[in-house]
Amino acid sequence: MSRGFLRYPVEFSRISSGFSSARFHPILKTWRAHNGIDYAAPVLAIQRQLLDLRRTYIIGGMLIGLPWWFLTAPLLVALSRGAILEQAPSVIWLQLLIGAAGLLATWWFHRWANRPQRAAFGRKLDDGAAGGSIRRAQAALDEIAEFERD
What is the crossing angle of helices 119-130 and 43-65, to 10°? Predict the structure, then answer.
């Protein structure tokens, strides 16, 4: 069975609250969904969940962002109500070529930035793409893990 389909996909037995749409929020005093991280879990389990979230966030951002290289071609067709296809089809082909070049340049830059000799630079780019809340949560967990080791 895949890890994503397990009822409790973590290696500990105590879960402070179940994941459901009917959880009473203790601070807001309302019923709302609980789909987040269980902070009563061991630090290592939470760190793994955050790494999965971070990876999903970065890959999702790339998959959503990359098609923007090609957005100008259909936008020009829509704004001209199709007239550009008859009057200047080379403009659309040029926009598609620019999009393909931009896509290849993005792929090359990602590979270049993540080479071992530029590992620090690649980590900074990934940190920027991961979002501030994920970085802050990871930093707090790293502090807790360091405290537990001492």
Answer: 90
d(CA 99, CA 84): 18
Q: What is the pLDDT of residues 51-95, one digit of tens each?
A: 888 888 888 888 888 888 888 889 989 999 989 888 988 999 999
Q: Taking the alpha carbons of 52, 54, 59, 61 in that order, is the dihedral positive or negative? A: positive
Phi, psi of 36 (to 5 degrees): -105, -155
Whole-number Å distance between alpha carbons of 110 and 125: 9
Query: 137 forms bridges with which residues in the sheet?
Result: none
Question: What tokens appear for 117 in the block?
Answer: 């000799």
Residue 10 CB partners (closer than 8 Å, separation 6+): 38, 41, 45, 49
- List strand residue ranges (DSSP E) for 26-131, in order: 31-32
- Residues 29 and 10: their CA atoms lie apart, in Å, by 28
Confidence (pTM):
0.56
The SS3 call for residue 94 is helix
